[in-house]
């Protein structure tokens, strides 16, 4: 199919008529910016070919001009199977369709029918797009990424194309129809999730409901059976209650029970009386026996008491002896203690004396030492005083010595200054001239002489030479020199020294005096208790200590003349003292220890004495009591009373036995219970009767209701219903099984057949695919989609890149179009904004593929990126306005 | 005297295999039989009808079911209807028969609940010895008392009882078991029995009447659908018993082994011959086996299942002919293609695996055959 022209008018943005010009075989390219209306042109193409002119469907409504209503008009010129056709349609208002070509001109539905026939498409439902392969080939923008979504007619078309290739019919159509029918039949019985629906579900639910109802009815029938059984029981009980003979017997039983109770009561009274008499006689007898026993006991006790008194008296005497012996031993021990105490005191006095002697010797020694210390202190004090006096006698000290030295240095300085200004005379005497040269009266020797003042040199034998040094300020120097000499003299005078050497010697003497003074003070300081103690105070303290010692010695008294060593004497006294103490302790312990024996002896004595008194008093009392009792009733009288008591008790016992022999059967309590039971039975009889009749009436009413319902019949009917539902359920299940079995078999067969005839499609796609993806093989599915690409490994379509998916989508369409073209079906490919994801290498190869395909097939490319497609050598299309007279040509 | 002997009306019986259309018809027909019995009695000059138990199928029928047979009998006041309880409607205390009495029975309908002789006619020449059941299963023979039952000298003694004269295995050992020679022992002129649904002569004086309207495919003796007209000329005379048809429906069991189209035709002919005049009176329980090709299976479906199934009142089929597809059958699916392949798969499945799966596969193949031949049922 070759599209040769497309005109649109009142289609979206195209209000006035425009025509797509330049169309021809091969590749056609419409490059234009966004919003130009490319997609509108494609929509118009789809509409004019695929939508019936009478359609008011959404695609048509969307074709209407912007901003207002209008009747879109679209016309195409195309060549098909060698014939030229013109198709024109107007939608919405005054809709029409016209198909011209091959010498015929068709209008309206006839045009539509012929068009569908030409295109090999199937009319869409209710104004929708006709369905066929063209829908899949004319891809709108945004669909280029997805593979063609094939409608059933499209699939059928492909299938028929493919089947034509095979020798035998694959029966795909027939299988598809069978499958559709089976699927539809299954859908009647099963819902989308495979659960029963419709009559299948009704059968299942009906069976459940019937079973539930059946269970309810069975329960009710059980209730009815229970009521019937209860009714039978009630009848038996009623007959029992209503029995006259039984009631008469109950009354007779009651009377008899009353008589039995009266007899029992009479017997009981007589028995009680006889037992009282017997008990009284027995008590009397017991009293006599008690009196007899009491008297015998007294006699026994009296004999025992007397013996005991004698026994205690003997014991008392023994205890007294023991007590006396213990007293004597105690007195002896007391005396021993007293003697030991006297010895101890004597030893104490000797010890004190010895200790006094030792103390006095120590004090005398101490006094001697104190006196020596006082002498040393006194001597040291005197040495200090003497050294101080010597020191004071020294006229020079360091200060005065300093002044002398300073004055000497000043004098030296003055002399040096004077000499510096002086005239020097270097004298060299000729042999024999000594003494002949005199200066100021003094003979000169070899050497230098300094003349500081006017001088007269007389040379013997020659005359005199007056020398007057021509120094400046000579007078002042002389004054200064004289002053310095005066100062030296004065300070020496103050120090009492004739010259400096004397001063130095005096200073040496002073140093010695200072050392002596320091030594004396050191000695004194060593004797003092502390550094700040005044020697006088120390001496006073020493004297006081001496006096104190004297007093203490005097207090001890004169020493005896014993020549023994006081310490040895003291030690002997101590040992004597220890011996005396030990003796005293022993005696004291001896006094304490025998006291226990003494105490026990005293206790025994006291206890025995008390016991003896009690025994003696008791025996006396017993004797008195016995005497008194015999006075009241002699022993003989008591024996006679015993015999009489025996006889009376025997008589009473026999009387009781005689009464017991008349005892009636049963007990009074049993008789009472019987009477109560019978009375109650008779009383309750009427009430029970009434209750039974009431219950029977209630049960009967229930039974009648249940029977009226026809329970058995309803149960049978319900069972039949349940069985019917079960049979229906089984039939449905069987039907489902049959249909599923059939569906599976047909689907499997169809799949197998499809796989066989898919091979040609794969072959159709493979060349282009191989050109784009070398060594790649596509997996084609029974619905003609490509599910995977196998290069080195299988790559599912969904995981491929956008570019690759887009290219495969284009190839798939190209393959389908090729297939159709090859089978003589109308085919033409439109790509709206496709291949935008391709890189330049892929794009070039796609161009090659498209170019190659364009030799067989018209391809229309719509793009906003014209520059991408410059290498494609395509026809350039343009959109041009059309004269109104052409547009409205009919 | 003349009397009509019937039993086992089983009013209210529910047939489980019957669908909602058939069930009311079958139930209704059992009621209609009462009218036919009454009319027969009148026509034959019988004075009374003795019903030997199981008037009702259920011990506790609905009120309507309870009253329906009474109303039918009420239409014949010139006849006395003597009823006894059977094992289905035994005389339970506070039960069905007391309900019936409370409805106020007309004088000519006489339930005999006690084992006591009752005069059959006003003159007292014939006496009825009824032996109705007081329980579903009576231990011991309920007719024993008849031996010692006193009736006027020279009177005709007619026994009326419900039970079996033979034990049928261990399920009911000795229940309601009647002495087979009770008529002789008790000096009965005639012993009218109920319980067996097929009419049966036990001896010259002992008969089962069978049910008046057949209610099962398996009936002993002469089958059901009759009532017995009994003529008693005297206490010593042997009774003259005539069987009269009163039933409408004919129940039949059939078996067929189908291997070819001729078998199907033969079976159809056999079943249509049961009642050529009115196949709608026929109920058939058919057991089928054998194996057929696909086209024969189609014929089976069309002629027997659909055709006869519509003609007869009821066609109940056990089993189905198996599938033995021939190569010709498969050729019907065309020389090749998916449908043919599917058919071959199904044919293979129909010949292997367990029986249930085989049957499903065979049915699927049959369905495919129909769909493929009809162009998928008009979908194309």
From TrEMBL, chain A:
InterPro entries: P-loop_NTPase (IPR027417). Residues 207-234, 675-709 form a coiled coil. Keywords: Coiled coil. It comes from the Bacteria. This is Rad50/SbcC-type AAA domain-containing protein. It comes from Gluconacetobacter tumulicola.
TrEMBL record, chain B:
Transmembrane segments: none annotated. Keywords: Exonuclease, Hydrolase, Nuclease. InterPro entries: Calcineurin-like_PHP, DNA_Repair-Maintenance_Comp, Metallo-depent_PP-like, Mre11_N, UCP033093_metalloPase. GO terms for molecular function: exonuclease activity. The keyword Iron-sulfur does not apply. Residues 1-100 form the Calcineurin-like phosphoesterase domain. This is DNA repair exonuclease.
